[in-house]
Design brief:
about 30% strand, single chain, 5-stranded antiparallel beta sheet, 4-stranded antiparallel beta sheet
Length: about 230
Amino acid sequence: MSWQGKDAYLSEVLSQVKFSYDHEPIYQELTSHLEERVEDYLSQGYEKEEAEEMALENFGNPVEIGKALNREHRPLLGWLHFFSSTLAGIAMIVLILGLFTLTIAILDSRSGDVPREDVLYRIDVNEKVRIDNRIIYFDEVIVEINGDLSILYNTLLTRDFGTSGYSFGNIGTILDETGQDYFFMSGQGSVGGIFSRGRHTVHGFPEDAEKLIIEYDSYNRYYKVEIPLKEGGL
């Protein structure tokens, strides 16, 4: 939302804040609050232009607000936070890349130990879900001639690395488009860590099935992924 006078008002606020790197988040935060006030006035029956003017008038003196914000965003503390955050981010990237490289070196075979001649078809998948602090990337589906179906997936921890370094083994119930579920036969996975790779295999999946469904429902955590199936590829 944009209206006449808002940018001038916010510029006056920001002119009091010496740490310029915080100007953008302060601008976004104050804009959000102003928009909420406008919406509130509109809901009370005021016209749009009147609601915008009232939002600015009742928000407070821009110089006083700016000075108060400046006390909270001091240059010295701001620069210390900026550099510490930057260094922490670099360290985390280095750690993730190192663990990723190690994991890929250990699990460098994309299709696991399935011999090429035993593969009926294989499908690349581009689906992801989130459970708490984990993002699960479904990477590949392999259907074998003997009816085994394997789902290859990766998991990535987004926080709490020190306490949640276990591998994720239960991706949910495996079904076809008719609702028939298939018993979990075996699984493989890398050692738990920030990045891990897993494989979930079921037996007796029909080769003419049109859809693979992965449904997870545990402790109020739910997701459902539907993957169209087709013969082809390697």
